[in-house]
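User: Could you check the structure of this?
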Amino acid sequence: MSSYEQPEQQPTPSTADSTEPAESLIGEDTLSVHRSPRYTNFMVLGAGLGVLVALVLTTTFPENPEFTKVQVFGFLLLVCLAGGVLLGCILALILDRIIGRRAYTVVADRLGTDDVRAPAPPESTDTQTFIEKSE
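Assistant: Sure, the predicted structure tokens are below.
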């Protein structure tokens, strides 16, 4: 075997020399886990589609003597952007309901450290000491 194929031997530190506190099992919890869509991505996608729809509608509408094309695009952008974000949120909620049916139950261990720390010294509330130090 070459050195590439052999795993490197690393020294294992003894538990007495370790400075990290040991973890211990405090308890177990049963949790329900399911996948969920990322709502922000759906809202951004809906906003992008809303901008495209506003651009298409602006170019397809006939010219209006009262408003310029930029003003018409602005009005349509407000409506289509809000509608696109709303439709993206509704689509994400529908997908969440469909995907959320497949939930898995798992057992999670709750770990704690056996770290015994010294309590912090109480802060002085003596105002006379503070006045003397500041002068």
